[in-house]
Amino acid sequence: MAKGKNLGPARLPVAQLTILAICRFAEPVALTSVFPYLPEMIESFGVEKKDVAQWAGITSAVFSLSQCMTAIMWGRASDTFGRKPTILTGLTCTMICSIIWGMSVSLPMAIIARALHGACNGNVGIIRTMVAEMVPQKELQPRAFSIMPLVWSLGSIFGPSFGGFFAQPAQNFPGIFGNNKFFLTFPFALPNIIASFLFMIGITTGFLFLKETLETKRDKADWGLELGKKVVDSSKLLCCQPRPKHHSPSHPAYDESSAPLLRPATPSETDSSTSFDDNYESSKLKPPVTRPSLREVFTRQSVINLIAYTFLALHSVSYDQILPVFMHHPRQTHDPTNTHLPFKFSGGFGLHSGRIGTIFTLYGVVGCLIQFLIFPPAARKFGILPCFKACAITFPLLCFITPYTALIESPAAQQLAIFAILIIRSFAVIFAFPCCVILLTNSASSLRVLGTLNGFAVSISAVGRAVGPAISGLAFTWGLKMGWVVTPWFLLGLLAALGAVPIWYLEEMEGFGGANGDGDGDEEREPLLQVEDEETSLLGGGGRVEGSSLTKSNADERIGGRRGSKSKPRLEQEEED
Q: What is the CATH number of the domain that holds 30?
């Protein structure tokens, strides 16, 4: 790189993050569309109402268990074949499994379909690794790592809405689907068929415009990018007035071919892409970085982060799993024979799937606003760790309060109360997961360690996602039989309180720049990707995390993949979630 060339502060690669978000969008839509109709689907298999929660927990458990068993495999596949082809393969497999799930006509078939769905669902961790490779700068992490949870929030708006609306179309819309044999045979297929169109959009967009971030694959020819460039050029010829073009020599697999999606390339980008070629060519002369040892991966802070993340996944996913069952369960008339406060009582809300879907949709809208407008500035002002600690205190309290909404006599007041609880929980969930991911990311001493660390995080947290719903489902079933509906909620509250303990032992680390870097400390800092100010402003401004000034050596370390370290991040994943 030429000395003395200053390209300004690092900026978010908005174009590629947007394309990655489009690829991600279909998965949360497909997953959350299940929540409103899951109790009715299980009942349609001949399961008694009192056993619905148990089997709902089992379906969620097999999903997470399969995800746990295949997480490392997906990570290795992305290290071997590249991030982009692995993501596209995962999207295709997930789409097929979603359709199979919707066409399930028996409980065993549904469980098998759910297990296959989990086995194919390895994209969350790969996408997280891609974000880390795109944006290693600490001051940009709150915004960068909040984008995919924002996508989850957007998906959680659409998913429950059409999941509850389009489930059982022959029954709910007899004038349109009443005589349709397909929907009479497969009453829960329509929401998944609709979701498949979103998968196709994500697959097509990713194939045409997503760039590879794995360093060892960046120099490979990408026919999808070439085709995407031709599509954009053809569209410009047909729809747009001719404009002067800025040609920039760039690497065939890492050029700015997708830049016309937002704007023409600028001269500064020409310099940036040229310097990338110089750095990449010089990196070939340096020896490859060895695989990180377990001692390097599992530092004290990394282990504490993994424990906290596992408990967070366990109780949050369990709550989301049993809440629709609780809301669908019939109401109970409370009298001295079946109610002995403060702990012995039972009953639910008696809501159908459409109403549950509406509540979850409103919940998703609020969550989206929180994710987009509140989390980034709050994280900058108060700090990542203090926000995480506040969330850790909130979770147990919400779990203990939730079952008492069953005692409210007015259905309207009952639904208003649960919605208020969901709003508070939305703050906690939306703050907790990005904060945990950022802390886990910054506990890695280098980018080559981060991939392996993410892989273990996915596998370990998937165990929590499998164990939590299974245990809470069994506890819910037992509680209904015994008249103690508080049982699963108090169990989750205790688990959330236990999971909060390790958070008080966490420390905010310096990230990749905190250890010996792989980069060349003699080179000047340059942005990972040069992006216009107008694009960056789409994500809410460019404030820095307080106390995280990025030094030259830190920047060199964080973009070590472009400075000569042929790292192979070992990938991976959550939700989600």
A: 1.20.1250.20
